[in-house]
Amino acid sequence: MDQLAQFAPIILMFIVVYFFMIRPQMNRAKKEKQFSSEIKRGDRIVTKSGMHGKIVDFSDKLNAVIIETGAGKITFDRSSISMEMSQKLNEPVKETK
């Protein structure tokens, strides 16, 4: 019993790290993967590097998307699309009074 009492703080620390760091990160990765699989042609997106554009086509062979920007068409990996910024870009505009 005395040995268990010595390891209790370490065990408690691992539990705290799991619930406050690892689990939320896993949930976030799951949401990003779902978002990446649900995008479709015509969606306006923002990449993680800040490039704005509209999805024109998909490349299943490369697991990439082709987006149209002001400069032309560019191919990006699906993983480079920012979920938060793309969702903010597509939100309806709220009217202020």
From TrEMBL:
Record has Transmembrane helix as a keyword? yes
Which InterPro entries does this UniProt record tie to the protein?
Preprotein_translocase_YajC
Give compartment(s): Cell membrane
Q: Name one GO biological process term.
A: protein transport
Give start-end ranges for the coiled-coil region(s). none
What membrane topology is given? Single-pass membrane protein
Asked if Membrane is a keyword of the record, the answer is yes
Which Pfam family is an annotated match for this chain, by its short name?
Answer: YajC
Membrane spanning stretches: 6-22
Q: What is its main location?
A: membrane
The record's Gene Ontology cellular component field reads: plasma membrane
Keywords (A to Z) from UniProt: Cell membrane, Membrane, Protein transport, Translocation, Transmembrane, Transmembrane helix, Transport
Assigned protein family: Belongs to the YajC family.
PANTHER family in alphabetical order: SEC TRANSLOCON ACCESSORY COMPLEX SUBUNIT YAJC
Report the protein name in the record: Sec translocon accessory complex subunit YajC
Q: Which gene encodes it?
A: yajC
